[in-house]
Design a protein that fits this description.
348 residues; 2 domains; 8-stranded mixed sheet; 6-stranded mixed sheet; Peripla_BP_I; TAT_signal; SBP_2_dom; signal; Substrate-binding domain-containing protein
Length: 348
């Protein structure tokens, strides 16, 4: 479930694309006869007419988490909107050796472009270099390779910004409350992304001297861990004013623990952008008041970038002839006021 951003922060770039259906190992030729659901949100511009045929190899992770499953769905859905794109999809794997083998198979098939969300960025750096040296440009999705020579373009989320925006939202809600207390339900502490999210959150709270973070508990990005760790937090902290939970999947368990404890005396902010979280925010009847996005639509944008690379084009809206080398997505805060705008991007 590791999702890390590189130290280079590119321009903000976003798109929205969501499709229903499971991801299968397949070679998908996107002809009009397919009954693929169109991508929601920002679809390709009508004037972007079909061009040179491009075969894109996509190597993603095992879909054992809502966000990761949404990554795979977004890639497939976006490719289906292009009649000039054929998508070669590998079976998702969290085993680095298996994923290296899958990428090498795509290289041997001589795909035009590769989109890779590595199970481990450092471990897959060499196969990224192998592809680039073979003349196959690589779009590195979210978990960054150890060398910039291993990819032509990186696109991913902003973990520090995610924490910063969560902390700022909570700070604004509590800025007039004396001696306010907040708690944090983090992800896995051995992941750099977790440390970045916590750092951003802590930095935001420095702007609100009336607020103190009184507790922090690390969970495992699962429903079960979220419930168990949240129960521990609730028992240890009989009173606080706000909770930031790093991940909406573990947030499902956290909300169960909160309901079981009969607690409704604080506000909660989630993370990532699950549909269940957005539904709860829209209903407005519980403690969950906002979620900070870590958009899985980045996979749809990666397909757009791969197609542009394969056709030798730049990005629409930019003057440059080439696509940028790094694109960082913005972590928007979804509240009851804007939730309808983001619901189409919510993932299960």
């Amino acid at each position: 479930m590791s999702r890390t951003a590189p130290s280079r922060r590119g321009l903000l770039f976003g798109t929205a694309a969501v499709s229903a259906g499971a991801l299968l190992t397949a070679c998908t030729s996107n002809e009009p006869k397919q009954q693929e659901q169109p991508a929601a949100g920002n679809t390709p511009a009508a004037e972007d007419k079909p061009g040179k045929p491009v075969t894109i190899g996509f190597a993603g992770p095992q879909a054992d988490h809502g966000w990761l499953n949404a990554i795979n769905q977004n890639a497939r859905s976006r490719a289906a909107t292009y009649s000039d794109v054929t998508l070669e999809i590998t079976e998702g794997s969290n085993d680095t050796a298996a994923q290296i083998g899958q990428v090498q198979t795509l290289i041997n098939k001589k795909v035009d472009v590769l989109v890779i969300l590595p199970a481990d960025g450092k471990a897959l750096t060499q196969v990224g270099l192998q592809a680039m040296r073979a003349g196959i440009p690589v779009v590195n999705l979210d978990r960054v390779f150890a060398s910039p020579q291993a990819y032509r373009c990186w696109i991913g989320g902003d973990n520090y910004g995610m924490g910063l925006n969560a902390g700022t939202y909570i700070g604004e809600q509590l800025k007039d409350k004396p001696n306010a207390k907040v708690v944090e339900l983090a992800g896995l502490d051995n992941l750099e992304l977790t440390r970045q999210r916590t750092q951003g959150f802590d930095d935001a709270l420095k702007n609100y001297p009336n607020i103190t973070k009184v507790a922090r508990q690390a969970a495992d990005f699962t429903v079960e861990s979220g419930q168990a760790k949240m129960a521990q937090l609730l028992q240890a902290q009989p009173a606080f004013d706000a909770l930031w939970n790093h991940d909406d999947d573990q947030g499902v368990g956290a909300l169960r623990a909160i309901a079981q404890a009969g607690r409704d005396d604080f506000l909660m902010v989630g993370g990532a952008g699950a549909k269940s979280a957005m539904d709860a925010i829209k209903a407005g009847t519980g403690v969950l008041k906002a979620t900070v996005l870590y958009p899985p639509t980045m996979a749809a944008s990666a397909i757009d970038l791969a197609r542009a690379l394969g056709q030798g084009k730049g990005v629409g809206g930019l003057a440059e002839l080439e696509i940028p080398s790094s694109l960082t997505l913005y972590s928007a805060v979804v509240t009851k006021e804007n939730v309808d705008d983001y619901l189409p991007t919510g993932f299960n």
